[in-house]
Amino acid sequence: MTPQVYSNSIRTFDVAIIGAGPAGLAAAEIFAMHPQEPASVVIIDMNNHRGGQFWKNSSKLPEQSPWHHHWRTYLRLEEKAAGFKNFLSTQVTRIQYDGQLFTLHLNGPRQTPSTITAKKVLYCPGTFDRQVPINGWTTPGVLSAGGIQAFVKENGTAPGTTFVVGGAGPFLLAAAATIIQAGGKVEAIVDASPLSAWFGLGVAGPLSPSKVKEALGYLCVLIRHGVKFHLKSRICNILSNSTGDRVVSVEVQTERKKIQYEADAVGLNWGFTPQLELYLQLGGETAVDRDGSLVAVVDENFETNIPNFYVAGEGTGVDGVLGSLVEGRIAAQSILGLDVDLKTRVDLKRHKVFSRAFQKAVAVPNEAFEALAGDTTFCRCEESTWSDIDGYLRTSGSIDARSVKGSTRAGMGNCQGRMCGFALCLASAAERERRAHSRADVEAAFHEDLRAIGAKPLAAPVSLESLAEDRD
């Protein structure tokens, strides 16, 4: 499986797998089972290990760690993937397609080539936590729920003592249980979703027994430790000490009253946003999923409108690890020209039904910005406030997200809108509704806003030295 090397040092592979999370590793296993075709496969991942965020730092934690899920599956897939050419700690910053070959521009360790080409690409992007601004959310001690899990997997301990976990959706249960298992205390889970949003999960549960078992395990941990659960409620204020350098309490608005919890840390999550920057660079077709996320449009074999470009895993919608594994296998079999067996198709259908129920439970409520104070930071990088955003929206004729971004600088900082971009699109949509735009117009504009905020000429930061070397 040695790649062909040309005199200009550009390497050409039959297949490039971008992303070594569950979907990418599952695809690699299929390719390993058919070593003659494709002849050369390369795996590229920004982390220094294979496994993505789900299996983050698995080698550093004890095998019986409560944060290991599907551990034997990981060991099997990891062994198969290690047999291919791997570029780890490497990011694909740009991608181009000339109708025959994809050109991938890489930024990694010195021995990594700056450019490779591939006949086919399987894109298995990860996600990042969606965030909605809350009064006090920039106080030290406020983390994303996914960030809390990453911290625990990295260090084996919780990043605080007493927590309140808030946002929307079932992932709040997983985050809270992880905190407790890591030695922390969770006072309350604050979920903006109504009880009806959870009914779908109960109905879809029998289609995914492992997910039901996992959820019941979380609930047992939470009940045993006396965690309070508030539905159709939201965190309205995160209060700090006099110097503003740590959290001291959290105000929660329920349907009936306001409650205050003492806490020194807060975990927030409103679902997840797939990282589609490379796909958008190619002009890939997208849609808005049920949870409001921008996702790639794929056919039954996970091929996109771009010939020979496949997307599997969270890039097609958040399905969880089991759904990602199935998608990775189907995409790899399709690339090989193999028939996908009926059982695999049925497994995919089951996971999709469950994921749709999951996504319904993480919808952000319309009143998300009602309690925001004018001086609350909206964009953490550029320090744009809610009054900057709201003031522009209410007085401007151009209320699309890019116009707001250009006028207020929200989304123009180091993270390039990964933190505030989704909220910016929500704010624009809310203003359209206030101006009585039709529902169809609001939804179409929201889709275009998500694409505009998600599209980036460079998918990751690069050094000036790298840009100078990459003259293409």
Describe the structure.
The protein is of the alpha/beta class. The protein is 35% helix and 22% strand. The chain folds into three domains: 12-128 and 273-360, FAD/NAD(P)-binding domain (3-Layer(bba) Sandwich); 132-269, FAD/NAD(P)-binding domain, CATH 3.50.50; 377-454. The chain is built from 14 helices and 22 strands. The strands form six sheets. Strands 1, 2, 3, 4, 5, 6, 7 and 20 form an eight-stranded mixed beta sheet that branches. Helix 1 (22-32) links the parallel strand 2 (11-18) and strand 3 (41-44). It is globular.
Q: How many E strands?
A: 22
State the secondary-structure class: alpha/beta
Name given to the CATH architecture of the largest domain: 3-Layer(bba) Sandwich
CATH class membership of the largest domain:
Alpha Beta
Radius of gyration: 22 Å
**Number of separate helices:** 14
**Unreliably modeled segments:** 1-10
Determine the strand fraction and express it as a percent band.
15-25%
State the helicity in percent bands. 25-40%
Corresponding CATH superfamily of the largest domain? FAD/NAD(P)-binding domain
Molecular shape:
globular
Distance, first to last CA: 28 Å
* CATH topology descriptor of the largest domain: FAD/NAD(P)-binding domain
Number of domains as seen in the coordinates: 3
Mean pLDDT: 88
> How would a textbook summarize the main sheet?
8 strands, mixed
